[in-house]
Design goal:
GO terms for molecular function: hydrolase activity, hydrolyzing O-glycosyl compounds. By secondary structure, the chain is mainly β. The chain has two domains: 6-26 and 346-622, 5 Propeller (Tachylectin-2, Chain A), CATH 2.115.10; 33-329, Tachylectin-2, Chain A (5 Propeller). The strands form ten sheets. The chain has a five-stranded mixed β-sheet with strand order 20-3-2-1-21. A four-stranded antiparallel β-sheet has the order 4-5-6-7. A four-stranded antiparallel β-sheet has the order 8-9-10-11, with no helix packed on it.
């Protein structure tokens, strides 16, 4: 796993205890920026009742957009609104990363621009099914008899209040439109209190279509001025509800035509933002780019759409969310191919893969990564039917709750399925506090019960350096015996007893390897040969790679081929530090896959040492030459196709 002696590990634990992205220690980031790889555009299309409905489009790059569902509505306006139509959809990813909030103007323009008194609050966990509630401001809150209209609601999470703040423009008889706010209740089904004033420009002219984005602790409110010279302006504050705004006098639109419905989003894996707005007099959108939210450059020539949107918003989404949308509403014909690497979203490393004969599914058991100094303390597993779509099955071992002898540094697990007395059992070996433990279960997803003590806690006799980490379990198909391998700086092996939770006395030995060996032993058997794979270099190094040797016995000795690299980085594709692997053989086939981790793409190579604990899991094909040697694997972003 790493070239780190215990003293350095302890130092990292003491002084690097805060997890990346400011999430509490012991939890992974809600959504890692690296996993936001596509975009969802939510919009409506016009002023007829048929056009006043929520529609979806998707993009792989933020520049080229393709409609879903043949550009037909994805939500029936009549079932969610009080007027029969909806406009101005705004979508937000919740603070938990997995709940989505949408708010809509409850209105059809055929009844007049001053005809609506309500908005719609919607909530979803999958972007497909939505729960909705109508909030009528006039009938819900006293004193709103003179209310004429409720326009363009939006939502932002107010971290200071710990609530979702819904903001919108209201116009009362005889006055201009002003931007108000109210906090949503916990279930996002209603507003907690009557609207309060959020913002009105010093000119006291009408303002509508507010859109707030936070950058570096500053909230930027983009809005449209009405009356006099109309257009897009911005005001800033560090406290959403303070009423203290600094206004920028400049108009931000880069056109002389009428505009409305501005919206800002950040491009994935970039420091660039897009400010877009509805050029409603021309029936099109204009896109502009900025880094500072102050100076904007038109990029219309870079943008394409196969639809004509009105006032909408764009949400960065993950690959699994994109797949879910396309599974429901189809894949646009010209949409680019979807990469399948990394196979798991989030930061994970040291992947162990298993095919379960009991469930007929595949499972990945990784290190939970993304914690400074490799300080994670729990293990999860993921299941799949096809090797490309993986379901998070949750935590299977939490050192703090389930293990009495160690509570830190949960690293590099492995697992074996054994049929004992006609019943499948699973034995899960893991690293904790630089020792190797074992837990068992009747199911590949647990619950797992720890054996109660470390299986390996000291260095083998004669070994003066290294760590007792990175277990690998292998059952010899010739003899049925099972072996446990482990070590950092040395490769140790011992035979497991029939109970699979203890080592057979007197069987521990050191297998000699060359000086490329660091850690991460993995053993497979093919055509009479035992293949030993291991990782070279440091997991924090861009040159971390996998090598191999062959033997005629699971105990060695190992012969090392001349060209023995199994997989290494592909800098031309921005792929680095490909190491600590496991291997999958498709049952009853000479078909093989290598599962490994790499620096997170594209951010890991820029992180320095932190790239070594912000890793992601990938799968590529593993192939053999006719003479039994392993073909060097070229790591890819595309990954493998789904298997049947």
């Amino acid at each position: 796993m790493r070239k780190t002696h215990f003293s350095l590990v302890l130092f990292l634990m003491l002084f690097s205890s805060l997890q990346a992205q400011n999430t509490p220690k012991g939890t992974l980031p809600v959504i890692a920026d690296k996993d936001l790889t596509a975009y969802l555009f939510v919009y409506f299309t016009g002023n007829t009742v048929e056009e006043e409905a929520v529609r979806y489009a998707i993009s792989a790059d933020g520049y080229h957009y393709y409609h879903l569902n043949n550009n037909k509505p994805v939500i029936d306006s009549k079932t969610i609104s009080s007027t029969g139509g909806v406009r101005d959809p705004h979508i937000l990813r919740g603070d938990d990363g997995k709940t989505f909030y949408m708010v809509l103007t409850d209105m059809t323009s055929s009844k007049g621009w001053d005809s609506n008194r309500a908005m719609i609050l919607l909530k979803s966990t999958d972007l497909v099914k939505w729960e909705s509630n109508v909030v009528n401001i006039q009938t819900t809150f006293p004193g709103n008899e003179n209310l004429k209209r409720v326009w363009a609601p939006q939502t932002i999470y107010d971290a200071k209040a710990g609530k979702y703040l819904v903001y919108f423009s209201l116009q009362y008889a005889g006055g201009p439109d002003k931007i108000y706010y109210a906090y949503a209740n916990k279930d996002f089904t209603a507003l907690e209190s009557a609207p309060k004033l959020l913002f009105v420009p010093k000119s006291e002219r009408a303002c509508i279509d507010g859109d707030i984005i936070e950058k570096d602790g500053v909230y930027h409110l983009f809005y449209k001025t009405e009356g006099g010279k109309a257009g897009i302006k911005v005001a800033t504050t560090t406290d959403l509800t303070s009423g203290k705004w600094i206004e920028n006098d400049n108009y931000l639109q880069q056109t002389q035509d009428g505009v409305e419905g501005s919206s800002v989003f950040k491009l994935n894996n970039s420091e660039d933002y897009i400010l877009m707005y509805d050029v409603y007099t021309k029936g099109k959108y204009q896109f502009t780019k900025t880094k500072d939210l102050e100076n904007f450059t038109v990029i219309d020539n870079d943008i394409s759409m196969d639809f004509n949107p009105r006032h909408g918003t764009i949400l960065p989404i993950t690959r699994s969310e994109l797949k879910r949308l396309m599974a429901k509403w189809g894949t646009p014909e010209k949409f680019p191919k979807i990469n399948n690497n990394p196979v798991l979203e989030g930061y994970y490393a040291d992947p162990e893969i298993l095919y379960s004969n009991k469930t007929k599914k595949y499972y990945i058991y990784p290190t939970s990564d993304g914690f400074d100094g490799w300080s994670g303390n729990y293990f999860k597993t993921f299941s799949s039917d096809n090797l490309t779509d993986w379901k998070d099955e949750g935590i299977i071992v939490d050192l703090r709750k389930d293990v009495s002898w160690a509570n830190r540094n949960a690293w590099a697990p492995c697992i074996v399925e054994k049929k004992i007395k006609g019943k499948y059992q699973y034995f899960y070996y893991f690293t904790a506090a630089q020792k190797v433990g074992v837990a068992s279960s009747d199911n590949p997803t647990g619950p797992f019960k720890d054996s109660g003590k470390a299986l390996v806690s000291t260095r083998p006799e004669g070994v003066k350096d290294g760590q007792e980490i990175d277990p690998d379990v292998f059952t010899d198909p010739k003899t049925g015996k099972s072996y446990l391998y482990w070590g950092n700086g040395y490769m140790a092996v011992a035979e497991l007893n029939a109970d699979m939770i203890s080592l057979k006395k007197g069987t521990t030995k050191i297998i000699q390897v060359d000086n490329t060996y660091r850690e991460g032993t993995y053993v497979i058997y093919r055509n009479g040969q035992y293949y030993f794979l291991w990782s070279e270099d440091d997991t924090r190094s861009p040159n971390y790679k996998v090598r191999y040797g062959v033997a005629k016995s699971p105990l060695g000795p190992i012969e090392i081929p001349k060209n023995n690299i199994v997989i290494q980085g592909n800098p031309a594709e921005g792929i680095y530090a490909t190491g600590h692997n496991s291997v999958l053989q498709i049952p009853n086939k000479d078909e093989w896959y290598i599962v490994y981790h790499r620096f997170s793409y594209p951010t890991g190579i820029k992180m320095g040492d932190a790239g070594g604990f912000h890793r992601e899991v990938c799968i590529d094909k593993l192939e053999f030459n006719q003479d039994g040697t392993i073909k060097q694997v070229l790591p890819t972003h595309l990954g493998i196709k789904a298997i049947k």
